[in-house]
């Protein structure tokens, strides 16, 4: 799970895809790594993970190419209005941009969404997005004028039973990574999520390795963990011998070389499909 305390912000660096937020954190990072999020509509198995990996999103009212997804990032600093339906006169909620990890003002990340659809029926003026909130799988609508869109060629598919994380680019598999998964008493539910933040740890040899991705979902078992909200994550480890076993509270672990490679290549907003 996502960390509860941070030393200081690290300057946000440019990435080939818009921005990747990196923040430094103290031990206690990844609030324990609880289980991964999902909703009844998004629950998946190994058989249908590939279908979930093909988002229905459109860009400028045109279909995306196979293997691509669309990411929307809030344009302006402040509260972003999110609507339950485009026909509503008032938003159902707001979300702050930048996003504060565990409400820490020193740990900021751009407010980023995986796009579900940009319907022609709304003249492409509205964007339906997946929300990084409970319940898992929640969606909402934002005005196209309030966000910037970017096409993402990457996706991640996780097989919990197979202890593997596969990375795809342009629809083709480019990495097959062995992982450690959750213990049976804090299982990671299947579903489709996305990367919401990237954290650089103060101790690359510590329990979470050099980097940790936060995901858009939360544990069904743990409503809080170590002061955090029970958010799912993908991170490194100082116990590489535990890879291939059920070891975590819900997070996905991999060796430090692989998490470092992912940190350099995977954009925020990347779909993460977990087959439970």
Question: Summarize this, please?
Answer:
Helix content is 5%, strand content 39%.
Describe the model.
It is globular and about 55 Å long. By secondary structure, the chain is mainly beta. Residues 2-32 and 34-53 have low confidence and may be disordered. A hairpin with a 2-residue loop joins strand 4 (58-59) and strand 5. It folds into 2 domains: 13-47 and 153-275, L,D-transpeptidase catalytic domain-like, CATH 2.40.440; 56-152, no CATH class. Helix content is 5%, strand content 39%. The longest helix is centred in the C-terminal third of the chain and has 10 residues, at 256-265.
The CATH homologous superfamily name of the largest domain equals L,D-transpeptidase catalytic domain-like
Instruction: Estimate nothing, just give the exact number of structural domains.
Output: 2
Give the amount of beta strand, in percent. Answer: 35-45%
Total helical segments: 2
Spatial extent as radius of gyration: 17 Å
> Average pLDDT, to the nearest integer?
81
**Overall spatial form:** globular
SSE ordering: EEEHEEEEEEEEEEEEEEEEEEEEHE
The residue ranges in which pLDDT falls below 50 over 5 or more consecutive positions are 2-32, 34-53
State the helical fraction.
Answer: under 10%
| Topology-level CATH name of the largest domain | L,D-transpeptidase catalytic domain-like
CATH architecture of the largest domain: Beta Barrel
| Name of the top-level CATH class of the largest domain | Mainly Beta
Count of DSSP strands: 24
Structural class given helices, strands, pairing? mainly beta
What does the largest sheet look like?
A: 9 strands, mixed
Distance between the termini: 18 Å
């Amino acid at each position: 799970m996502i960390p509860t305390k941070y030393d200081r912000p690290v300057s946000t660096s440019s990435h080939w895809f818009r921005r990747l937020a990196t923040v430094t954190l103290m031990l206690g990072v990844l609030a324990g790594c609880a289980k991964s999020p999902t909703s009844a509509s998004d629950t998946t198995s190994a058989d249908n993970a590939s279908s979930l990996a093909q988002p229905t999103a459109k860009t400028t009212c045109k279909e995306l190419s196979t293997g691509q997804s669309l990411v929307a990032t809030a344009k302006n600093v402040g509260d972003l209005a999110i609507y339950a339906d485009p026909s509503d006169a008032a938003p159902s909620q707001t979300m702050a941009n930048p996003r504060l990890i565990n409400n820490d003002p020193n740990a900021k990340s751009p407010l980023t969404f995986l796009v579900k659809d940009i319907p022609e029926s709304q003249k492409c003026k509205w964007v339906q997005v997946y929300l990084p909130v409970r319940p898992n799988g929640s969606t909402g609508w934002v005005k196209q004028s309030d966000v910037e869109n970017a096409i993402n060629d990457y996706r991640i598919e996780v097989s919990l039973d197979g202890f593997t994380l596969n990375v795809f680019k342009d629809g083709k598999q480019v990495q097959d990574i062995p992982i450690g998964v959750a213990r049976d008493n804090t299982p990671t539910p299947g579903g489709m999520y996305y990367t919401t933040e990237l954290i650089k740890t103060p101790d690359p040899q510590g329990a979470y390795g050099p980097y940790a991705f936060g995901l858009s979902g939360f544990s069904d078992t743990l409503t809080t963990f170590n002061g955090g909200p029970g958010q799912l994550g993908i991170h490194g480890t100082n116990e590489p011998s535990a890879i291939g076993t059920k070891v975590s509270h819900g997070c996905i672990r991999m060796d430090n070389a692989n998490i470092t490679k992912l940190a350099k290549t995977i954009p925020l907003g990347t779909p993460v499909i977990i087959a439970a």
